[in-house]
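hi! just following up on the protien thing from before. the input was this:
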Amino acid sequence: MLPDDYKTGESYGHYFVEVPNYYFQDRSCFYDYLNKWLYEGYRQQFLSDEQTHQYLFVHTRNTTKDSLSGTSISSESYGAAVAQVMEKFTGVAYYPQVFRAIYRTHYVNMGASPEV
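and the predicted 3d structure came back as:
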């Protein structure tokens, strides 16, 4: 992420994190789907003719009957979606900011410097 992409970017600058290439039961992997979404036209299926954008997470249905919107998902909606998935699998609705705290705590416990 670039410094303008997150709230502590001014202090820490560029931020790099690896996204694991998770493999599914059918032997497909996360990167395959990400590539199809970004570069092979899957995203275009959710955009009307006049829409162009680079959002990764989009609404697939609008409130209008049978219309695909392709509009970006707000951070609040994204957070709620993550919480719903977590609640389904763990019984607790963890929001994305909790993962940030868990991640930070893990690194502090490993002895990482404040810069890391």
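The two ends are 15 Å apart (CA to CA).
DSSP finds four helices and no strands in the chain.
cheers
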